[in-house]
Amino acid sequence: MSQEDREVDEALALVRRAQGSPAGGEPEQSPQRPSQETGQAGEAGRAGPARQPGAEPAPSARTDVADSGRDGAVASASARTRATPWSEARVVAARAGGAGASRARRVSLGQALGQVLAEPLDALTDLPSFDTSAMDGWAVAGPGPWWSVEEGGQVLAGHAAPGALADGTAVRIATGARIPPDATAVIRSEHARLEESKGRLYARREVVQGQDIRPRGQECRTGDRLLPAGALVTPAVLGLAAAAGYDGLSVVPRPRVEVFVLGDELLNEGLPHDGMVRDALGPLLGPWLHALGAEVIGTRHLGDDADALHRAVTASEADLVITTGGTAAGPVDHVHPILRKAGAELLVDGVAVRPGHPMLLARLSGGADGRYLVGLPGNPLAAVSGLLTLAEPLLRARAQRPPLAPYLSPVRDEVNGHPHDTRLVPVVHRAEQAVPLHYNGPAMLRGIAAADGLAVVPPGGARAGQELEILDLPWTTEGRFT
């Protein structure tokens, strides 16, 4: 059982005793799961001391809860009551993103990659815009053999319209060149034999009328809908847009995001030492947010300084501010106080999900388009949980990207669950099953680094073979970092 589960269960037991439950009543137990909760700042605001899976939590952790007495127990129960159900939290985040959706702008094709279409892509021309040769070879008219047309040379791409081709004649033609009027087919070079002494062309195989000719409008006609609004602009989309006559596209710009990584204990390089730990979230968050469609305008490390955090948040020009750690109620957990000071409105204050339950979503004051803050827990996997729970649906809605279609997959193995909350567990896909990975504690990245996605485990856990919703990771759904 992880330390966070022990604390919750002990707090609930204290509440029951305070309310007159029998003294011998047993607290509800969380299923055990491996959790070496070391590393970045913990879900309660700071990292706990290292311990092995199954070991007793450090005495200080137990004493913090026990010594708080009834007030601490009531506060813990109140936090659980306040926590938003996981699926509801995602809906709230998406609604917030939609309310502040980015305004469309027109950009050149070279600037549109990775953004989404604000308007449908309709063909501005027929494709192809004229009958064209699909292969290098010979354009022929009528049945063969054909007399080779020597005068006028060959028909090349990009040249003026060729003259009409008389019945029974042939002319050399290049791929992409305009088909001469009255031509009936193209014979590929490797399928033709020219008897130069007589100027006669013979086909090595049967010639079918219209073969290797791309007729005008074969791919689309002017005005045809090629792609809907909301489609992601990929390199292939850029090529299609250019072929269809576009010099620029109307797109929804990437939402701007600024990241503040909090904590005095964080190192930017070298090995951990003297109670200091490496910052795992700084290198992780920027690329992950970029893969979610955001423009990351900066990632900054701030110490445990409430005034510095307040200045950074209120001065940020980002559409979305991301903070890490400091979302609980410890002595250096400054996110809630600075949000109150800034006049922010809390939309989500805790989510019933493990790891990551202290995450939050707030609407920041000022700005006509709406600015938001997502407060992530400090533990790395808990922060990933926050990204997928709150940041992804908000950013997707803000950028007007369609939501990902949910899908289910059976899990190969039994998965332990939290007694009350949803649990997100890294999985890999094997033989049409989702295989849960070890090293899935809040402070661990080893599991998610190898994962294809996260399984959404309901309270109480899942049996082997049970179908669970799978959250794909952005580089498995989009297939790239755009």
Low-confidence stretches: 1-5, 10-75, 478-482
Broad shape: elongated
Structural class: alpha/beta
| Range of helix content | 10-25%
What's the total count of β strands? 28
N-to-C CA distance:
39 Å
- Indicate the multimeric state: single chain
What's the tally of helices? 11
Largest sheet: 7 strands, mixed
**Beta-strand residue fraction:** 15-25%
The radius of gyration computed from the alpha-carbon positions, rounded to a whole number of angstroms, is 32 Å
- Mean of residue pLDDT values: 81
Care to give the gist of this entry?
The protein has 482 residues and is of the alpha/beta class. It has helices at residues 3-18, 59-67, 69-82, 86-99, 235-243, 281-291, 306-315, 335-341, 380-398, 446-449, 474-477; strands at residues 84-85, 105-108, 116-117, 121-122, 132-133, 137-140, 146-148, 169-173, 185-188, 192-195, 200-203, 213-214, 225-227, 248-252, 256-262, 266-267, 277-278, 295-302, 320-324, 345-349, 351-354, 360-364, 371-376, 408-410, 422-430, 433-436, 453-457, 467-472. The radius of gyration is 32 Å and the shape is elongated.
Structure description:
The chain has 482 residues and is of the alpha/beta class. 24% of the residues lie in helices and 24% in strands. The chain has eleven helices and 28 strands. The protein has helices spanning 3-18, 59-67, 69-82, 86-99, 235-243, 281-291, 306-315, 335-341, 380-398, 446-449, 474-477; strands spanning 84-85, 105-108, 116-117, 121-122, 132-133, 137-140, 146-148, 169-173, 185-188, 192-195, 200-203, 213-214, 225-227, 248-252, 256-262, 266-267, 277-278, 295-302, 320-324, 345-349, 351-354, 360-364, 371-376, 408-410, 422-430, 433-436, 453-457, 467-472. Strands 1, 21, 24, 25, 26, 27 and 28 form a seven-stranded mixed β-sheet that branches. The protein has a six-stranded mixed β-sheet with strand order 9-6-8-7-11-10, with no helix packed on it. Strand 22 (360-364) and strand 23 (371-376) form a beta hairpin. Helix 1 (3-18) runs parallel beside helix 2 and helix 4 packs across helix 9. It starts with a helix and ends in a 5-residue tail after the last helix. The model is unreliable at 1-5, 10-75 and 478-482 (pLDDT under 50).
